[in-house]
Amino acid sequence: MTAPEQPSPPADPPSRWGTARGAALLALALLLLLASALALTLSLSQLAENRAQVVRTNTILRGLAELRAIARAAETGQRGFVLTGERRYIEPYERATDRIWTHVSELEGLIKHPAAAGLLRELQPLLHAKLDELERTVALRERDFDTALSAVRTDVGQELMERIDATLDALEETERNLLAVRAAQEERSAVSATRLAGLMVVLALVSAMLGSARILQQRADTHLFESDRRFRDLAENIQEVFWMSDPRRTRLLYANPAFERVWGRRREAAYRDPAAWLEAILPEDRPRPGDGHGDEIGDEYRGTYRIRRPDGSVRWIRDRGWPVRDAQGGVRHLVGVAEDVTAIREAQEALVRANEELESRVEQRTAELTEVNLELDAFAYTVSHDLRAPLRAIHGYTEALVEDHDGALSEEGRHYLRRIGASALRMEELIRDILSYSRLSRAEVGLRPLSLDALVRQALSGAAAAIEETGARIAVEHRLPDVRAHPPILAQVLDNLLSNAMKFVAPGTRPEIRVSAQRWDGRVRLWVEDNGIGIAPEDRQRIFLPFQRLHGPETYPGTGIGLGIVRKSLERMGGSCGVEGRPGGGSRFWVELQAA
């Protein structure tokens, strides 16, 4: 079988100086190629290490999120069991407690950074303490509801959960910082590897072109054989497919042995049949007219396509080609490098599948948590309605006894009846607040522009009796900016804040309240300032949680849900709330909403 026809030699034989110069350039290109290959090997090694660190950090972040969700699930199951006594709430609690230490053990094996490892060690005794507290409360509930409820109200479990959340937040922040650093390192390594790979391709092409040029120039020279051997040493030992074609006759002039390994076909067959190269390409990936394969040749060809080998397997190929022009600018032939990138494409597809699977798992777990929360809301709503009927009966019978048998009762008996009536009223208020809080989670909240001035006037009108009873002085700074909110929900927020401002004052103190607002960056912050008893800095977050009381009901009556309703209301309207200390005593409560 004859070798493929080679391009014709130049008209004049090369000079000795030209031959030496060509050999020197080829040797220099080979040295640069070797140096680039070494640098690329080191760069790819660094890239693989950085990528492994990024993957591990992402795994740690997912593990921390799952650990937080498991701890929350354990607490939710425990509370559901304490409130209802139903065993179905124990199952998610027991599953969560069984899984916690498995996740902790996995995180211990993944976390290597000293700061993150230290935070994980700090987290473990907190998890032990939290699980012990949950176990004790469950055991108490199996014996007695009131004892278990009293244990829950000590806030020990809430404080442990807050410390666990704070430690997990610190761990996640540490890992996110590490992820940012490692991702930047990975990106730099990838850029460096890409540049080195491009340099290698260019150097390989330059070397091949120099070798080809020497072959063409030395055909009539006695050193033709040596030049041809050098060219083949270069082209036939690289892992990529080096090819040369004649674009005018669509004929493959040369392909190195890597062609047989990648295409799975003999080179001689490709030399004989000009269409063999293209026929291996899948029909949908084949080049079309104008793609740079016909008579009009651009400066560079780049393409990615799939080929089907004789054994039926499909491989992804990344191909690059350049025209070699003569002195007049015409295209003499095309040279290029084709690379099998199947492993890279499969890795990319695997990464996409992994991300889709992760998103699916996150959506599934979010849906599960949402379902649990909806069940708890429905339970609270049902219990609240079922409790109101007997409370009304208790209150009604108490009033009837006082009205019909007041003379027959002793002072101690009347005192007991008054306490029973007050307790029934307080329980009625608690149920009403629970219903309000539960409705906030289910209600459709449509926002529209509202006048804060009008809503504040409405709230003051509704609180007229309490203002008269307490003698409160309320100053409103007009004109208040308009906001986007839900009218009934914002009205309840204002009513709760004004009610608290009038209630929580020292005995004998006349309430002094100031209402003002400020606007910036498309937001409006409304302030309600009072001269009350104030709130310690460590309690300023806790008071916005349901059932969190800083004082007993005998000192300041209430249910402990009012500020929880405020926080939940603001969250549903896309806002936020908080409290600050006031110079000279008192508090400055604020709520923030979108400006209209």
Instruction: Order the strands across the largest sheet as they lie in space.
Output: 2-1-5-4-3
The helix-and-strand class reads alpha+beta
Indicate the CATH architecture of the largest domain. Answer: Up-down Bundle
Tell me, briefly, the overall form.
Answer: elongated
Fold-level CATH name of the largest domain: Four Helix Bundle (Hemerythrin (Met), subunit A)
Q: From the alpha-carbon coordinates, what is the Rg to the nearest angstrom?
A: 40 Å
Mean pLDDT: 80
Number of H/I helices: 15
Q: At the first level of CATH, what is the class of the largest domain?
A: Mainly Alpha
- Can you count the beta strands? 12
Q: What fraction of the residues are assigned to beta strands by DSSP? A: 5-15%
Cα-to-Cα separation, first versus last residue = 84 Å
Any chance you could write out the topology, listing elements then pairs?
Blueprint: H1 16-84, H2 90-110, H3 114-143, H4 145-153, H5 156-217, H6 224-235, E1 241-246, E2 251-255, H7 258-263, H8 267-272, H9 276-279, E3 301-308, E4 314-325, E5 331-340, H10 342-405, H11 411-442, E6 448-451, H12 452-462, H13 464-470, E7 473-476, E8 482-485, H14 487-503, E9 512-520, E10 523-530, H15 562-572, E11 576-581, E12 587-594
Parallel strand pairs: 7-9
Antiparallel strand pairs: 1-2, 1-5, 3-4, 4-5, 6-8, 9-10, 10-12, 11-12
